[in-house]
Design brief:
Largest sheet: none
Oligomer: single chain
Helix content: over 70%
Radius of gyration: 19 Å
Order of helices and strands: HHHH
Distance between the termini: 24 Å
Length: about 160
């Protein structure tokens, strides 16, 4: 089977790819920051005081995960700053590519986990396990499995391979 995808190996390609990575990061960053802000203000709500110990642990995990996710989104930009002017744009682009993939999947899991947490607090464990667990599985399918199913073999440039 012939492959119609031709990798862009022009001298301008890393610059275009870097701009695409930055745009994708901006899109994810807003949602993650809003969700993190929501998690930060939760303890100041009246109903928050009725959480069980397990619910409090789950909340702390979600809060810390959201903070780490925001920091992870900064990694490509900071690496770019450190490598700026050293003609290492391809290295920066590869790192950015990998970080954006991890952030995208992690952001989806954070959203699903936060919804699971809210449902658990509102209606309890039995319903939250089905709804939250189902949402978590749907998220993993949509963000991990579906892209792999849609990507034709050999269509990614070698610089973007997982290896």
């Amino acid at each position: 089977m012939s492959n119609n995808v031709h990798p862009d190996d022009s001298p301008e390609a890393p610059h275009r790819q870097w701009n695409e990575i930055l745009q994708e990061t901006r899109v994810m960053q807003t949602g993650v920051q809003i969700l993190a802000a929501f998690l930060v203000i939760l303890p100041f709500q009246a109903r928050f005081t009725v959480l069980t110990d397990v619910e409090e642990i789950l909340y702390v995990i979600l809060l810390v995960f959201s903070a780490l996710l925001i920091v992870l989104m900064l990694v490509p930009v900071l690496v770019h700053r450190y490598l700026f002017g050293q003609r290492l744009k391809a290295t920066t682009v590869l790192l950015g590519h990998r970080v954006v993939k991890v952030v995208g999947i992690s952001a989806g899991l954070l959203v699903a986990g936060s919804v699971w947490f809210v449902i658990q607090v509102l209606v309890g464990w039995p319903v939250s396990v089905y709804v939250g667990g189902g949402l978590m599985l749907a998220t993993l399918f949509l963000l991990v499995l579906l892209p792999r199913l849609l990507t034709p073999r050999g269509s990614m440039p070698e610089s973007y391979d997982e290896g």
